[in-house]
Design a protein that fits this description.
The complex is a heterodimer of chains A (239) and B (208). By secondary structure, chain A is an alpha+beta fold. Chain A is built from 6 helices and 13 strands. Chain A is elongated. Chain B is an alpha+beta fold and 208 residues long. The chains are: A alpha+beta (239), B alpha+beta (208). Strand 13 of chain A pairs antiparallel with strand 5 of chain B.
């Protein structure tokens, strides 16, 4: 995003809408730190700029990555849906993506509030890849990897900044302990934060099998979360 | 994984915060899903949803009103309804089950409360998604009261600066907590920001 200095009157209305604090208001006009801007469109949509000084410059690769992973109304071609993720557990009763005995893991790097550079996303992905995880193919973040076996990303995206990027994979429940250990280690080597989630099928007795795994690894989990109530059709039949 | 997850708050505050998400699945049941999704939003509104929203085209404010939002729901949209009362949400779930539209429904909220709602509505939880909190440089994050408001928009559009500016305006008497909550709702394109809960949180910030 850019601000036209000839039009801008430094009213400051846009400043509060930047989620990464990339807008500063000078004496005569506002300015966007182009390297920090994630192309989320929030300032353009919400600031009601009185002189229409905010404008979207032409987006070219690799900067296009910022828009796809930061602007909620941009449709990701890999998933076909708006937003940064996939259908994951939201449609699990019809897709069967996460079966009994498996867990879905989502590592949303940069969320909340800080944003992320892809060199940090890569650190986490490569740490997980050494543990043998297979990344979700329909996820837009996976599509930016140059090698899905190692979690290496394309060199030209490594310095790109996005509001968040989601590393997503499924693992057998018995491998979750080692993945948690890997995440604890790599979380010490990044400049940003990630929000972590784990999805699993509810057992026939109502138990959540991942809860015990989190407890024995001394991992806090919240009393709130998401529940798919199984109303989608046709229902996927597990073998 | 995902915008209605990772909401921060104490159990008392979260007990007034529920999001229903309605989503078709690509290549399985997405064809012709638009009218079904609209029906699900209408069922939610009839049962007392305080907000509805559409990830694909934006919230009611951005689209110019509730009628426009409902009219424009497309196949493959991801739409939501926000509730501040578990009893009303339970009634919506009962009606959604009876309507049998075949579209996936995900409830975000306190698991204990959601389980109760499901039981009363005759639904059996299929898959759950837990949030394991924030990892890494958590020392760089804002304070808890700011996070509680920020995380109600999972895409991060309700910014730290907007929250702090709004709380300051409420403190100075330039707007009421309810007006402040409306201001914060507007950037949340999916419409999942719970303005009712937010008004209380802003008031608490302003009273400090």
């Amino acid at each position: 995003m850019r601000i036209d200095p000839e039009k801008c009157i430094a009213c400051g209305q846009c400043e509060v809408y930047c989620p990464v604090g990339a807008i500063t208001i000078g004496d005569e006009h506002a300015e966007i730190d182009f390297d920090e801007c994630t192309e989320c469109y929030n300032c353009l949509r919400m600031a009601d700029c009185p002189t229409e000084a905010i404008y979207q410059q032409k987006l070219e690769w690799p900067r296009t990555v910022r828009s796809v992973l930061s602007d909620v109304l941009t449709i990701a071609p890999e998933s076909g849906i708006s937003g940064r993720g996939t259908e994951e557990m939201k449609t699990n009763e019809v897709t069967g993506r996460f079966k009994h005995g498996w867990a879905g893991v989502g590592i949303e790097v940069g969320r909340p509030t800080l944003g992320a550079r892809f060199y940090d996303v890569e650190k986490i992905a490569m740490a997980m890849a050494t543990l043998g995880v297979e990344f979700e193919r329909s996820n837009p973040t996976t599509s930016l990897m140059s090698d899905v076996k190692t979690g290496k990303f394309k060199d030209d995206v490594l310095k790109e900044k996005v509001l968040s990027a989601i590393i997503e994979f499924s693992v057998p429940l018995e491998k979750l302990d080692q993945d948690f250990a890997g995440l604890k280690e790599v979380s010490q080597r990044i400049e940003t934060v990630f929000s972590l989630c784990v999805a699993s099928r509810v057992a026939s007795n109502g138990e959540i099998p991942t809860n015990e795994i989190m407890r024995r690894n001394n991992i806090w989990f919240a009393p709130n979360g998401k529940t798919n109530v199984g109303l989608g059709r046709p229902v996927f039949k597990e073998d | 994984m995902t915008h209605t997850l990772h909401r921060v708050g104490n159990p008392e505050s979260l007990s007034r915060d529920y999001v229903l998400l309605f989503m078709p699945s690509k290549d399985i049941n997405h064809v012709g899903s638009g009218p079904k999704l609209r029906k699900m939003l209408e069922i939610s509104l009839k049962n007392g949803a305080i907000r509805i929203g559409d990830c694909r085209l934006g919230n009611e404010y951005y689209q110019g009103g509730l009628d426009t939002l409902l009219e424009h729901v497309e196949d493959r949209a991801v739409v939501h309804a926000v509730f501040n009362d578990p009893e009303k949400m339970t009634a919506a779930l009962k009606d959604l089950k009876a309507a049998d539209l075949g579209i996936s429904v995900v409830v975000s909220g306190l698991f204990g409360k959601v389980d109760d709602c499901c039981k009363k509505a005759g639904l059996t939880p299929h898959t759950v998604n837990n949030t394991l909190g924030r990892w890494g440089r958590t020392d760089r994050l804002p304070l808890q009261d700011v996070l509680e408001l920020n995380t109600m928009c999972g895409h991060g559009m309700v910014t730290v600066k907007l929250i702090e500016d709004t709380a300051a305006k409420v403190k100075n008497g330039e707007m009421t907590p309810e007006q402040g909550a409306e201001r914060l709702f507007k950037p949340c394109m999916c419409g999942i920001f719970n303005a009712d809960r937010a008004a209380g949180l802003i008031k608490a910030m302003a009273d400090k």
